[in-house]
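User: Show me an example of a complex going from sequences to structure tokens.

Assistant: Sure. Here are the input components:
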Amino acid sequence: MKRNALLIAGISLLALIVLAGLLGPHLVAPELADIGAVRPRRLPSAANWLGTDTQGRDILATLILATPQTLKIGLFAGLIGLAIGVLLGLLAGYFGGAVDGLIRVATDVMMAIPGIAVLVLVATNVRTMTVALMAVIVAGLSWMYPARAIRAQTMSMRERAYVDIAQLNGIGGVRLVVVELLPNLLPYIAASFVTAVSHAMLATVGLEALGLGPQNELTLGMMIYWAQSYGAIIRGMWWWWAPPVAMIATIFLALLMISIGMDRLVNVRLRVDS
Amino acid sequence: MYFAHVLRRFAMMLLVAFLAISINFVIPRLMPGDPVEQQLNQLAATSGGQIGDVKAMADVYRARFGLDQPLWRQYLNYWGDIARFDLGYSLANYPERVGETIRAALPWTLSLLGIATLISFAIGTLLGGAMVWPSSPRILRWIGMPIVMLSAVPYFLLGIVLLFAFAILVRLFPAGGAYPFSMVPRLDWQTASAILHHATLPSLSIVLASIGTWAIAMRGMLVSVLGEDYVTLAEAKGLSPRRIFIWYGMRNALLPQLTHLALTLSHVVSGAILVEVIFAYPGIGYRLYQAIHAKDYFVIQGIVLLLSVSIAVTMFVMDLVYPLIDPRITQRRR
């Protein structure tokens, strides 16, 4: 029962954040997030619930606009990374041999190269960064984790009796993979998706906090970047950096809860002992 | 067996290094636009448009930097520079070479990361063990949960909170830097204590945020090790539970933990970059941040290169050491 509680709690927490992002713009005027919309450097008050920053933005409005953007990057990057990872994992696990060898080396190599280094290199060389571009770049560095997990699962599933029977019935190649293997892999794919999204989010937030995020759009990482580069922490303007920090921490916490919950759902071995 | 293993891992390291170095060459050239003309146009714009024939100047610059040569030739030249550890000049602090910038920053990062990783590995592994040990005090369960939760949060977020709490609200620790501005670092006790004082908060944020990862991994590994047949046999022999736990359980669970250390290395380094930025700690990460700000492309490239290659080499060294600790590694093919 406890495992489901964790999973449900994580999903509800994330749903709540998404809901806030969807409803928020109707409750708080988005114009307040523009530069110079409000009086700068105000403590939280009845008018500005979370205060205002040095550039004259309302923190609450900024937070509400930034959260969905960050989630969007994480989600899309996770989806793209998952798609590439599942495809490669299936290919490697199903065909084995040279295909497997090639894909495995590629995965190992990509995992050994520090993601942030490649991201920094790409991001510094791109003219203008956008949310969509960011998602693609981050996805390019998060496909290895699903590829690894799906490969291992495919290899063990290929040896199962039902695959043999399907092959005896003359089902082979792509059809076997799609009809027989894929449905059985779904729980693992779901678990990999959560991992991929967490990795993507981690890379995204890090890149943004370095100042390499989308310049013309509001994201949580960019909020931290601005707070950091205007010295909000040193100047004790806690209301500026605390909301994005708390929001990012909550998102990662929700992802961790979902991931642990998923793990217990998927891994029978873990279920026995906890 | 050991030799074949070493050879395989060595080939792997070369491949990683080769790819990392090549990526460093390819990515900037893949991007649209001509950096030389772009720089000159920018110069023209800021100096009122009177710098002469931009096209002719661009050609001169291209010839000087070898950018007029065919791509394969540029690639070979690039490898020649790398082989001589020539990473070019810093654009922001011009006469300084990129190599010097990196050399000045590296010791700070190495010591900060090394010590923080060692501490968090030791505490996390012990904590993970204690979480499984049946007769460990109940309080460990209460410590365990928040520590695991902290591991989900990026290091630098924790850094921000720690900085605010212990350097701004309560002025226990300095807010940034590696030693006081007024101090000339010398080899004496005063310098050492100042450096430790400055490094406490940055390393604390890395330690706190990564203990949980080790604890979870150790706990999971220990649970599966304690289910092995040889543990049952040891119990049947009547060995004391403490002895079984430490010498049969912990000892065997420790090995995969070391593998885990190698795999997460690049993750730890990535995380530490932003911790340095938050604390203005003069290591590689902070230099990278400054270079990004100043659009100092050669420094960015140099640091990116250093990160990828050093991680590849470290992983190789770890691969050399494992089989000496755990002979199973060379026998089992993954």
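The lines above are the inputs; the final block is the predicted structure for all two components together. Chain A touches chain B through 44 residues (CB under 8 Å).
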